Amino acid sequence: xxTSKKAEIDAKIKENVxxxxxxxxxxxxxxxxxxxxxxxxISHYMQRxxxxxxFIGYVSKPRVYPEEFIPEKILESFKExxxxxxxxxxxxxxHQTPYSILLEFMSENKNCNEPKILMQELWEIxxxxxxxxxxxxxQPVANDFTATVIAYSCYGDINGNNNVNSAYxxxxxxxxxxxxxxxxxxxxxxxWDLAISYAVCQEGDSPALVxxxxxxxxxxxxxxxxxxxxxxPPCAKCMKSFRGVKFNPxxxxxxxxxxxxxxxxxxxxxxxxxxxxCQDLRSRILTEKNIQGKQMDIIEIETMFKKExxxxxxxxxxxxxxxxxxxxxxxxxxxxxxxPM
Length: 341
What we know:
Blueprint: H1 2-34, H2 39-58, H3 66-69, H4 72-81, H5 83-88, H6 98-109, H7 115-129, E1 131-133, E2 139-142, E3 149-156, E4 163-170, H8 177-191, H9 194-202, E5 209-210, E6 215-222, E7 229-232, H10 236-241, E8 242-243, E9 246-247, H11 266-276, H12 279-283, E10 286-287, H13 298-308, H14 310-323
Parallel strand pairs: 5-8, 6-9
Antiparallel strand pairs: 1-2, 3-4, 3-6, 5-10, 6-7
């Protein structure tokens, strides 16, 4: 009886992953075509999204293979147009989740100066990505690759009058403990600015990262039964990790520790992009004072991360990938990252 129940649960989980991936692939292709993107742009983005979905599907439990995500009538066409993702999902890691790639495309190709405009477009997209079940009050049952939180960060001048840079980020949009841990490890080791990686690895412990007070951050939460993204305060983990950032609205319960892991929140990706796009801001990053009263600057933060955190993280990631039969390079020194052909 227990075996039968587990098989039923596993089948439902797999069905949700497959449905989520298929809906995402078809919708993203529609978005690219509707934007009149060039064949080169379409190929670039589709390869990245396909590879990310194939990789996450493979490391999910139950496992999902690439061919299961693509409707049979277009499978051969996709294999011909985008052979790389079908070939490399077992040996190369993605840099981003599918939704993070979608957000990158949207923010680069739409009017993103006003966050509410982009949020409205993303809300329309999210509605089509979520499959709901009328038997459980229209609750989502297949949204494994859809981010529920988007963060917008900006950095103003010394008087706070003008934004010299801004960036968007999404929460880690994949389900399952192992896929989520893998994607956070990849982000920390290969994607994020090392200042963000340091903050995530500190897991709220002192000394935390300190931003200049000209940095602002606002998060938006998607609800399938509303008609917009709703502004939400940061969680306690973000408050502990990123000191000095002006979060709006402010954190309501700084003592409540959420269940999701450090690195999961949209604020990480958003602040990472902000740092990578603005050297002036990056040069002003410090840590809180330690017990000796000393603060680390950005160079010292990088050195500390590489010396005390990096090797342990690489070992953890290697073990996670190995447990899912992902093939590493023979020298095991550096992961192979997927690159569109």
